[in-house]
Design brief:
With about 350 residues, this protein is an alpha+beta fold. The chain is about 35% helix and about 30% strand. The chain has a seven-stranded mixed β-sheet. Strands 7-2-1-11-20-19 form a six-stranded mixed β-sheet. The structure holds flavin-adenine dinucleotide.
Amino acid sequence: MNVLIVGAGPTGLTAAVELARQGFVPTIIDQRLEPSGLSRAVGISTSSLRLLAPSGVTEKLLQAGPALQGICGYFNDKLLLSLNFSEHLPHNDHDAFYPPLHCLPQDQTEAILTSRFRELGGEVGYGIAFVKLEQNDLSVAVTTTSEKAEYDFVIGADGIQSLVRQQLAVAFNGYELDEPWSVADVETSHWQHPQQFSAFLKSNGEMCVAAPIGKNRVRFVSNTADALNTLPINVNVHNIRRQSTFTISVRQAADYSVGRVHLAGDAAHCHSPVGGRGMNLGIADATQLASCLINNSSTNYHQLRYEHASKTISITERGRRLLSSDNKLSTLIKPTAMKFVNQSSFIKRRFVKSMLDD
Ligand SMILES: Cc1cc2nc3c(=O)[nH]c(=O)nc-3n(C[C@H](O)[C@H](O)[C@H](O)COP(=O)(O)OP(=O)(O)OC[C@H]3O[C@@H](n4cnc5c(N)ncnc54)[C@H](O)[C@@H]3O)c2cc1C
């Protein structure tokens, strides 16, 4: 089986590793001249760790990042919620091997996937852009900036602006959010929560989340144009490694498959980083699609993945609207709910279990 993967982000690289480890080393290209240095996603879910375990990638991801011990929540400058994973693992999961959430910058996750792909005999073709495709019942003819070649299948893992999706004339239904969001990666030696994922909600609807991404390094993401200034508590920043704003699209492709060409990851769906689901959905798409191609059941792929992403988008959007709402009722509900959860071991256990099962 001869497969071309367009895009060497986490989705394309996962598909490459999954196909290669099962004996089908694909061709993978990326228009970038070299691997991306951007660390967009940091949260790797338990389900992604489970999916990446058979290839040996999970072991390396766990070795590379700091162990996350729990989560905490602030309303304005008050710490109202603190949850330690190890205290609230469901009884039968006490021996669970994977943590409920693991933090690692996306460029490191990509580097680990790339290195595993190389060990399996593959190589990413950097500096090669997909240009166009034509397909019939038997194959797909693809033109790239380097050559014209025929493939049995093509995977479009080429991100939100996917040219593969555009060539297939597949609708990308949804909308854009008006407000700018921001991200900041900083070096600080005095961060209060070096082993926890923390969320800061404010009564004016602003929010900021913080994740440890290395020794003395913290990532902040906010629904404002300035993540660091949105924090209601002090952070002693030694160095800002990266700071930028970004806009958010909430969209989903109407079809994930057209004939022998399939869409995965951000090429198929995108939404806000609330819940940290984007990369994890892409990893799940990629493993499912690799399995469908190998088992000659790629016609099932759309059905297997579309509904799941559709639900995730609507949950993520409901969460984003609630967390960023500044109306009086939600300003009352948010701190009350945080205090309530903080006092309930039962809810904490259910929450940790939902993270493990996701
Ligand atoms: C600030 C921020 C924080 C985030 N945090 C999280 C998080 O904590 N957890 C999470 O799960 N997700 C998170 N996400 C989302 C996550 O980053 C994306 O969902 C993920 O990068 C999607 O991966 P992908 O491989 O599908 O697409 P991409 O990462 O966009 O990769 C697509 C690749 O295709 C290549 N390409 C594009 N066009 C062509 C072409 N014509 N020819 C060849 N190559 C091409 C591009 O160069 C690129 O390398 C976050 C996003 C942002 C912006």
